[in-house]
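Pasting as-is:
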Amino acid sequence: MDMTDFTTRDRLITTAAMLFRQKGYHGTGLTEVLDAARVPKGSLYHHFPDGKADLARAAADWTAVEIMKIMDASFGPAANFNRGATTLFYKVAKLFDITQAANACPISALLFDGPESDGFRAHAEAVFARLTGHVAAHAVRLGLPEPDAVGQAETLLIMLEGGWTLARAKRSSDLLRRVPGRMYQ
């Protein structure tokens, strides 16, 4: 990834997101992040006063925004919620193929594998609530009543998380492409 136009803060976040996803929170050292992002140690603490924990939360937020962009690209042109969900799963399968299935769910790798703390759990809950709300807003726009939209959004995220994990175990994105057919039977 060419990061020459990124700010120092952006380089730290995107590099950390990639490394945390590949190696987990505990498997990634700050020196490794700093070296890969090509920034001095002082920059980390300037942008993230609490160090690695702040950086992980920022990386999870950045990841959520990137996921919401994929959701927008999937649901934006869709004729209905089911077609948008199908497109989303195909896009996620393509992402799975690009990352060669070696990586954990980007948000789970950051926040659930991180330090056991109420702050990390609360942040994970907030990130997933944002993703659920984002999908639900698309569902409402596509004609689902709000209570159904929230339920469908939660189901979609459950299937996405579980589908990614099982696809990773099987080392095949084909499972992700089959999820929509199983969701709406």
